[in-house]
Specification:
By secondary structure, the protein is mainly beta. It has one domain. The chain has one helix and five strands; from the N terminus they run βββββα. The chain is globular, with a radius of gyration of 12 Å. 22% of the residues are buried.
Length: 80
């Protein structure tokens, strides 16, 4: 398996929680679905990629302190 592009970006390590801009759900850094040689959000119904559409969960939480420290997998966490 290829190394995830997101690892090392903004200090992200494997296993850190990542939030997807497209589906507003979280997954662990290092997880991805490879489609057409691109690293995509691991949720099969999402078309977000892991490079431009992925944000560290802590960055999202900084604007939403009501969100839990550890997100629930598969749950939507809207920005607005």
């Amino acid at each position: 398996m290829k190394k995830a592009h997101i690892l090392g970006v903004e200090g992200i390590s494997e296993g850190d929680w990542i939030w997807c801009l497209h589906c507003e759900r979280c997954y662990k850094a290092g997880e991805f679905d490879e489609r057409d040689e691109l690293q995509m959000c691991p949720y099969g119904d999402c078309d977000g990629d892991t490079m431009f559409d992925a944000f560290p969960w802590e960055k999202i939480r900084s604007g939403h302190p009501e969100y839990p420290k550890t997100p629930e997998r598969g749950k939507n966490y809207p920005m607005y």
